[in-house]
Design a protein that fits this description.
The chain has 13 helices and 14 strands. The chain binds pyridoxal-5'-phosphate (PLP). Its EC number is 2.6.1.-.
């Protein structure tokens, strides 16, 4: 008998299944369940992008072919110019930029290019779930710095400093944060930049939600710290800013030597990011008809407010910190004896609402569930109506 299980690669079998995927799979078996689990904006990809691609599909013979491995030169140039403008230093589109299949590919090829067996990678807990498996896959050790649950999920800078060791290879910053909605300010970013400079490690900035900050207008960027421009890596996603989750487009910016290695991995796994999606990203950046096409941003502001109002009505069950960015609320439930996995499963089976158990985002997430408010306002209201009804049965 051929024992398939014993012959699989341990570097993959030791990785746990994504808590988001697990909930989505469980949810798909519950008819009529509403998902507030995955971070998918309900709105369609804006009209100008769809129209632009339709035209290209009709007219352009290049759209169905591979591009150069690092991506369309004109898209890389746009990315390079925008980073150079923000950072005030030269960026070479041929050496510092690679167009990827979403931010997740940018993270994956970067982490596999810089993290080795035994390297430590500092992360904040709770954090975006896929960081940990990507680090483990590369043989690295995730070092989790707990965020302050009782202080708006702020970073405890002393804890951050004491997490640094000679083995620290990289620190991952997600600003604004998925899952907490926290935004790092100047003080935190200064501390991070100082540590990276002093101890000689990379900083990966996951800027998937940089476009979505609610009350503070814009947030400071790690690009403003020239002392770390030689070790700063940016992973960006077109998914959320342009409601393009299914297209799979993003980019990696980093030092030439990192991008050179990451490109090898990108080439071996993917050859190039999907060409129609690269053109869609190009259209997204170059043909934008106004500051908020199709009102995506305005709608997310409304949905944040709606979600908070609905959670306020459930204050006997939930407490939470109002998100300052991104589109998630990590709410604490006042049922101390139930683990978040069980709580999420009960919400699914009894209220037909899919959420992510906080434990999936790290041990500090235990006792919480993550609500994504990418869903439509109707779905959000229906989901919270169901939760309100459900609370009466508790
Ligand atoms: C923080 C964060 N980083 C990266 C990603 C992946 O984005 P993409 O769709 O561009 O791969 C997500 C998706 O939800 C995310 O929330």
């Amino acid at each position: 008998m051929f024992n398939v299980g014993s012959k699989l690669a341990k570097r993959v079998t030791r990785i746990e299944e994504s808590p988001i995927r697990k909930m989505m799979m469980a949810g798909s078996k519950v008819p009529g369940a509403i998902s507030l689990a995955q971070g998918i904006p309900d709105s369609r990809t804006p009209q100008y992008i769809r129209d632009g691609i339709i035209e290209m599909l009709k007219e352009d013979s290049k759209i169905g072919k591979y591009t150069l491995g690092p991506g369309l030169p004109e898209l890389r140039k746009l990315v390079a110019d925008s980073i150079s403008k923000k950072g005030g230093f030269p960026v070479d589109p041929d050496k510092n930029v690679c167009i990827t299949a979403g931010a997740i590919e940018a993270l994956a090829i970067t982490i596999s290019s810089i993290v080795e067996e035994g390297d430590e990678v500092i992360l904040f807990d709770p954090g975006y779930p896929p960081y940990i498996p990507l680090i483990k896959f590369a043989g690295g050790k995730p070092v989790l710095v707990p965020l302050q649950a009782d202080n708006a999920w702020k970073i405890d800078l002393d804890k951050l400093r004491s997490a640094v060791t000679p083995k620290t290879k990289v620190l991952i910053v997600c600003n604004p944060s998925n899952p907490t909605g926290m935004v790092m300010g100047k003080e935190e970013l200064t501390a991070i930049a100082e540590l990276a400079e002093k101890h000689g490690f990379f900083v990966i900035a996951d800027l998937t939600y940089e476009f979505l900050v609610y009350d503070e207008g814009t947030i400071p960027s790690l690009l403003e710290f020239p002392s770390i421009s030689d070790r700063l890596i940016i992973c960006y996603s077109f998914s959320k800013e342009f409601s393009m989750t299914g297209w799979r487009a993003g980019y990696l910016f980093g030092p030439e030597k990192v991008v050179e290695q990451a490109l090898k991995v990108h080439d071996d796994f993917l050859l190039c990011a999907p060409t129609p999606s690269q053109y869609a990203a190009l259209i997204a950046l170059t043909k934008k008809p106004g500051p908020d096409p199709d009102g995506l941003h305005a709608e997310l502001v409304e949905k944040r407010n709606l979600t908070c109002e609905r959670l306020d009505r459930l204050s006997d069950l939930f407490s939470y910190t109002k998100p300052k960015g991104a589109y998630y609320v990590l709410a604490r439930y006042k049922k101390p004896n139930i683990g978040s996995q069980e709580f999420a499963m009960r919400l699914l089976n009894e209220a037909k609402v899919i959420v992510v158990p906080g434990i999936g985002c790290g041990s500090q997430g235990e006792g919480h569930v993550r609500f994504s408010y990418g869903a439509s306002k109707e779905k959000l209201n229906e989901a919270f109506d169901r939760i309100e009804e459900w609370t009466k049965t508790l």
